[in-house]
Amino acid sequence: MMRNAEEYGGKGSERPAVEWIFGLMSGCGVLALMAYLGYQALFSSSRPPELVVSVIGVEQADGASIATFEIANHGDRAAAAVSVLAGTKVSETAWRRVEFDYVAPRSVRRGAIAFPAAILSGDVGIEIGGYTEP
């Protein structure tokens, strides 16, 4: 069954003013978004990953020590395959390594490393071993 335009309350191809208003507002919104993204792509500067690692604390468990730490990325870009090296100031041979697959920009990740002997929080030395850019 075919219906003509008069059944929908209009004269042929005329559109209600509301459709024109929302169409223009949507078009302006899309153009503004494209202008903003273009500006960001051309003129924004991004800092490389700035990784800072620090020991949160050390817990004793069954004659061993578990050192918890956090990595903070203060940069504007992400870091992948972040390697953290931790050791004790008491023993040079007790270095351990943990790898994080991804540290997002302006985020914090936490981890833990186990040591076979009882140690104190001040005895843990920790540093970033390296990373790759994703």
Layout of secondary structure:
Layout (H helix, E strand, L loop, with lengths): L16 H27 L7 E11 L2 E10 L5 E10 L7 E8 L3 E9 L8 E9 L2
Antiparallel strand pairs: 1-2, 2-5, 3-4, 3-6
What are its keywords?
single chain, 134 residues, alpha+beta, Immunoglobulin-like, 2 domains, 3-stranded antiparallel beta sheet, 1 helix, elongated, TIGR02588 family protein
The profile of the biggest β sheet is: 3 strands, antiparallel
What share of residues are in beta strands? 35-45%
CATH superfamily of the largest domain: Immunoglobulins
Radius of gyration (Å)? 29 Å
Number of strands: 6
State the end-to-end CA separation.
59 Å
Helix content: 10-25%
Averaging pLDDT over every residue, what do you get?
A: 86
Tell me what the CATH architecture of the largest domain is.
Answer: Sandwich
The CATH topology of the largest domain is Immunoglobulin-like
- What is the global morphology? elongated
Largest sheet strand order: 1-2-5
What is the CATH top level name of the largest domain?
A: Mainly Beta
Task: Describe the overall structure.
The structure is a single chain. The chain has a three-stranded antiparallel beta sheet with strand order 1-2-5, with no helix packed on it. It has a three-stranded antiparallel beta sheet with strand order 4-3-6, with no helix packed on it. The chain is α+β, with helices and mostly antiparallel strands. The chain is elongated and about 85 Å long. It has one helix and six strands, in the order αββββββ. The mean pLDDT is 86.
